[in-house]
Amino acid sequence: MLAHGMSPHSLSSRDGSPTWELLHEALEAGDADAVRVLMQEIPDGEVPRLFAHLSSAESHQTLAMLDPEVAGELMKTLPDAFAADVVEGLEPAEAAAIVTTLPSNTQADILSDFEPEYAEAVLAVMPPEDAADAERLTQYSDRTAGGVMITEYLSYSDQLTVGDVLADLRAHREDYQRHDVQYVYVTGDRAELKGVLRLRDLVLTSPNVPLRQIMVTGTDFLPVDADIDALHDFFSTRPYRGVPVVEADGRLVGVVRHADVAEAFGEREASDHLKALGIVGGEELRTMPVFTRAWRRLSWLSINIVLNLVAASVIAAYQETLTAVIVLAVFLPIISDMSGCSGNQAIAVSMRELSLGLIQPADVFRVWGKELSVGAINAVALGVLIGGAAFLWQGNLMLSVVVGLALMLNTLLSVSLGGIVPLALRGLKLDPALASGPILTTVTDMCGFFLVLSFATAVLPSLGN
Amino acid sequence: MLAHGMSPHSLSSRDGSPTWELLHEALEAGDADAVRVLMQEIPDGEVPRLFAHLSSAESHQTLAMLDPEVAGELMKTLPDAFAADVVEGLEPAEAAAIVTTLPSNTQADILSDFEPEYAEAVLAVMPPEDAADAERLTQYSDRTAGGVMITEYLSYSDQLTVGDVLADLRAHREDYQRHDVQYVYVTGDRAELKGVLRLRDLVLTSPNVPLRQIMVTGTDFLPVDADIDALHDFFSTRPYRGVPVVEADGRLVGVVRHADVAEAFGEREASDHLKALGIVGGEELRTMPVFTRAWRRLSWLSINIVLNLVAASVIAAYQETLTAVIVLAVFLPIISDMSGCSGNQAIAVSMRELSLGLIQPADVFRVWGKELSVGAINAVALGVLIGGAAFLWQGNLMLSVVVGLALMLNTLLSVSLGGIVPLALRGLKLDPALASGPILTTVTDMCGFFLVLSFATAVLPSLGN
């Protein structure tokens, strides 16, 4: 362990040039020693930004010059998807050497982010045992116990004695130290979990005692398909740092750590956020290829433009009213935008409460009631504001009643939809993060345009200037 | 430890009624035993939803009937702000008993979420040592090492021997077990951190050896004001579960745990998401009072409506053109909405990359370039789509060129702004989550309306039907 001082986020080196410029120079000069020193000296917090500044070729050159252990440490500071981007394209043997230094769950995440053929090539040159572990882990879906767990844990047959275990621990002291092991799991003939032991209990017990005599039985465990919400709930009330994971037949297959669960939970919220703002797939980094990025955004935008055209067709049906009272055209985009704002607030709160386990699809009426109470206050406030602005501008009371009343009613509609739609989509097993926004804006736009223009049509004589 | 099976998220009890209905009945009947049994049997994952269904009075009745330890376990399953809401209003002595069972960082979070007078009342009846710890922790800002750390750690003077420590550990065995202690910290005269010891090393050493002889020195530590990004970076490359935190003068004041850092990091992203969608303060739960919720939403909406009026004033300046070509009114909300969509995608990616440390304000030109390349593809695609739709509908080529070209140019503007504005706000030490959206939509609305209407004005003769 080394003394560690937090340095400010400057990404500039001794002589004032940013590290990537020094690195450019060292790479051009082919000066491997300089590259090694630069990568050794850079603070962890500045590694992601450094790689964001390097071209793919430069990243590969840099990684190839480093010890795989050092390269692995650097990759740990990057988000998994970005680490996969950076590593992909290296000689498979070099990539395998780096990937092997990472914890098994990170290995699996990075391998599934590779193009399939490249992942195969890397797996083929990884140590067979690591490759088998990593491949098995990639089978479990993301954000379940199987997808989050690590396979670095110690398990021993219940036929062994304390002495057997201590001998094994001593023989592999260095290997095990890297993983900060605290518990030892005891398994039966079919590798099924039978009990758990703390290291310190082993140390205090006489060597010829069988494990089965001192192990703690009836331990907490998690099924391999437990979802991220179940994992999050589990750790919220238990002081454990890690918990064993078992297959349906009772076989011990891994250990889930609290910190990994907390991280996966945060990742899901981040991914939902990106989806809600129109990034299909829930992830975009600007280091990804332009066409991938353009495609993920465009697939969302093109659906939205069609929905927008549908909504705007309501306006087309009222061209006569619009021509007669052209100032209404000023208010249409305002009604559309403000209803969207109110509805998105309700969506955001519903998504948050779903994620925290505070609500479920069955709570739709309670949520609706809660939205209507807040919505009523805000509907009146917004209606009065826009009605007042309309009156100040045009001096026509009926006009201000038309736009004020339309926004009031549409605000009530939009908070209702915003609160309810995420629950309904979740109930239908659809992804609320991706679909709630477009459904909301399309319906509230259509309805908002209809309210303004139909009210205006009804009182047309009093609106004419 | 108990065997633990994950139950499905049903929140229904043996006879099919949801737990809260059974609880209503038990509370009405004043049947404390039934309440205790119900709260014992409910799976952790269903506790948040249960409390979301209870009125404040019912929550207080329930908590008062439970053992403080049990009530504390229930509160641990709730988000801190919600736990504070649920507990607030209990008799201060009852609240203090529950709060005291929680880890010190949760105590501090909940106390700062109480109304100040209520927090004082609770602190006054907490055990003096706990109260002092909790009060000290509330001084540190959220999402720093000081705000995230716990004060439950073991530290001993470097004057002591191994035997002294083992005697203390034995004497307080029960207390310490609750906290899953693995390390012991060694401090000097002024409580300054001198070294660290693993429990298992203590057990294997002869009792009369002084701590200073076997402690590991030069340990990693974190300053009390390290921010959440620094904490996140720190743990991303180190296998530690916890790290000591020291004041500027070297005094040991707490321990930061990896899982708490991962959780705080996720919380910040969730809070930014709520802000970005218009929840001022970054948190709203529907269990909060209606006026608090309405106010947080309205303060954002009222700014937006003013900005919307400003943007729409551009339309007002072109009433003549609009009257001449009324179909333009159909396209104005579409241009506004689609530019908002494109820009929000860019904002979402910039916020994500800022949070991951991939970009900083100084990277503004690189980000702009990356946005322009994706933006160019999407601008052409969207321009052609809307131009095509306009042509199909009206059969007027010039009209389709006007709206297509306007949307193209405005898409380029909106992705540029969306990419850059969060960086600029961060550079100015303003909160990009809250302000990016309104700035984007106001500017792109104004510019979009101006482009459509000024192009239309320029070619007005060819647009007339």
What brief labels describe this structure?
homodimer; 465 residues; mainly alpha; MgtE N-terminal fold; CBS-domain; Tetracycline Repressor, domain 2; 3 domains; three-stranded mixed β-sheet; 24 helices; 66% helix
> Which two chains touch over the largest interface?
A-B, 133 and 134 residues
Strand order of the largest sheet of chain A: 1-2-3
Shape of chain A: elongated
Regarding CATH, which class of the largest domain in chain A?
Answer: Mainly Alpha
Fraction of residues in H or I helices of chain A: 55-70%
* Category from helices, strands and their pairing of chain A: mainly alpha
CATH architecture of the largest domain in chain A: Orthogonal Bundle
- The ordered string of helix (H) and strand (E) elements of chain A is HHHHHHHHHHHEHHEEHHEHEEHHHHHHHH
What's the rounded overall pLDDT mean of chain A? 89
